[in-house]
Amino acid sequence: MKKVLVALLTVLTFGQLQAQKVDYSVVSVPEEAGLEFMKVTRNSDYVCMPQVVRRGAKANWFSNRVLAISPDNDNTIAYLSWRNETSNIFIKDLTRQGSSTQRTNRNRVLDFSYSPDGKYICFAEQRGQTTQIFQTDAKAGYVCGQITSGNNDFSPVYSQDMSEIFFARSESMGASIWSYKVVNKLLSSISLGMNPCLIPGQSEMVCARSGNDGRYEIWKINMTTGSEECLVSDPTRSFTSPQVSPDGKWMVFVGDSQLGTGNSVYVNVDVFACRIDGTGFTQLTYHAADDLSPVWSCDGRYIYFVSQRGDMNGTANIWRMNFLLNR
After folding, report:
1. What are phi and psi of 71, to 5 degrees?
2. Is 15 exposed, middle or buried (0-12, 13-18, 19+ CB in 10 A)?
3. CA-to-CA separations, 219 to 30, 144, 173, 225, 289, in angstroms, rounded
4. pLDDT in tens, 148-159
5. pLDDT tens digits for 49-106?
6. 174 vs 184: CA distance, rounded Å
7. φ and ψ at 44, to 5 degrees?
8. Could you tell me if 144 and 122 are in contact, meaning their C-beta atoms sit under 8 angstroms apart?
9. For residue 293, what are the contacts with CB-CB under 8 A and spacing of at least 6?
10. How far apart are CA 12 and CA 31, in angstroms?
């Protein structure tokens, strides 16, 4: 994560991930008791797996969103798929057993999100040395409108009224969050950070931000008052990819932890949760597979994420687990 944006082929992969004697074949581990896991894709969906790089007792991972649930249909999931040497957005109807439908026809789509009404998809694509933001229809055609150019922009998200698109921009001093006004195409810098996610019904967002030691924290930014508050921080590990629940009360995010003791230590990447004020911090997943890019179902009952769990060869798929903390 120190290099916020690197070449696509180094951050998104498909298939086997070379790991250190990880048993991927089991679906869950005892620490995940009470959680129900369901695989919602197949190996033939070629789900992109965000890369995790381990160096000693530290892990860096690609934190951008590679899947999303359609706001107007909880049974429709969009995800990044690697096929024919390209990465594109595909749509899958979870009520059917058939194949997915290709939604973009690009070369290097990095990440994306749905508009609040479910009619559009905003995505970032790497093109040479830059990464630009585009918008396309969520249900028909390959026509795309370009929103930004000439920079390294990624992780676009819409405001609730769709008047703005917020995104992260990689710059020499790190990542910062920007706003694009749809009406007049005005660009403005908001704050430091990446992985922006708006809090429903509020003029606030959460994001990931690098601390002084290079580890990432989860911050909340009030876009009206300008006040900023650190919600989740740990001197020994990083947290990124915050996603706020539909009711605005909880958020899930990705963080690292360590498995094993003594000389046998493996740095793990898991899904965590807490209340929107940072209290109630809880680790949800403990599997030695990498669990990444969590998103909420429309009703807030489930969390979808990408993982290699449940496949003996470590092939990535999208999984669903129930969310128990709000019961």
Report:
1. -65, -25
2. middle
3. 31, 32, 18, 15, 27
4. 999 999 999 999
5. 999 998 877 899 999 999 999 998 888 999 999 999 999 999 999 988 778 999 999 9
6. 27
7. -75, -5
8. no
9. 50, 64, 65, 66, 67, 241, 254, 305, 306
10. 28
